[in-house]
Amino acid sequence: MSAFIIAIDGPAASGKGTLARRLAAHFGLAHIDTGSLYRAVGRDVLKAALDPADPVAAEQAAASLDPASLDDPRLRAEDVGRAASQVAAHPGVRAALLAFQRRFATTPPGAVLDGRDIGTVICPEAQAKLFVTASPEVRAIRRATELSARGEKVDYAAVLEDIRVRDERDSGRSTAPLRQADDAVLVDTSNLTADAVFDLAVGLIGGRLSGSGATPTRRSAPPSPQGGGRE
Ligand code: DC
Fold it and tell me: Per-residue pLDDT tens for 145-158?
């Protein structure tokens, strides 16, 4: 049985996570928010009172990552997000997380992966690739709304600045930078509702799925991240 892979890349707060979850449910595929892997590494480095900019500390945290801890609400905290962006710049961290992501994607019937380098590095063979983006200002409003709904105090200017810094770091790093794959379809969500983005994506992907011969049905559990070496 072949795997149908949908790669969704884009910057922070572009709407790619919501879209990826809805597409996975719609097409009966598994889903992983790959940012949560980098966030978990960042969280563990901070918890150990080490520096996310230190490649040795970050690589050790990536190598001993506990997959059961990916649901931790602390992963959504702003300091963890910043640390994630820092640890994600270390090539050793990316290498340590590569095998798990590939195994997740290629387990039949397939999966939706959202992140920064899915279409370019993790799954260049994905049958469908979307690059989901929005203006920094729109993304900052979304992020600020999300934070304030969680009861956090929000400074819009600081949120916007943080988004700009993160964009620069994610796009400017030398290993697996955030960039649109040549064969990805660009979806600008700045002026679209989540429903409109979903309908657009289903239209784009549906044809490829029917021509692929894959027959997705929801699988019961994702593969274990453990036991995979570096690729
Ligand atoms: O999507 P997010 O905000 O949860 O991601 C957190 C950080 O992880 C982000 O700054 C960049 C990094 N990341 C990455 O480098 N590659 C991915 N595939 C996913 C996330």
Answer: 988 998 888 999 99
Residue nearest ligand 1's atom 20 by CA: 35
* Cα 199 to ligand 1 centre (Å): 25
Give domain limits for the chain.
4-210
Average model confidence (pLDDT) across the chain: 90
As assigned by CATH, the class of the 4-210 domain is: alpha beta
- Could you read off the pLDDT of 44-84 as tens digits, one per residue? 999 999 999 999 999 999 999 988 889 999 998 889 998 99
Residue whose CA lies nearest to ligand 1 atom number 5 = 35
Query: Of residues 207 and 103, which shows the higher confidence score?
Result: 103
User: At residue 218, does pLDDT exceed 60?
Assistant: no
174: CA distance to ligand 1 center in Å? 15
Three-state secondary structure of the chain: CCCEEEEEECCCCCCHHHHHHHHHHHHCCEEEECHHHHHHHHHHHHHCCCCCCCHHHHHHHHHCCCHHHCCCHHHHCHHHHHHHHHHCCCHHHHHHHHHHHHHHHHCCCEEEEEECCHHHHHCCCCCEEEEEECCHHHHHHHHHHHHHHCCCCCCHHHHHHHHHHHHHHHHHCCCCCCCCCCCCEEEECCCCCHHHHHHHHHHHHHHHHHHHCCCCCCCCCCCCCCCCCCC
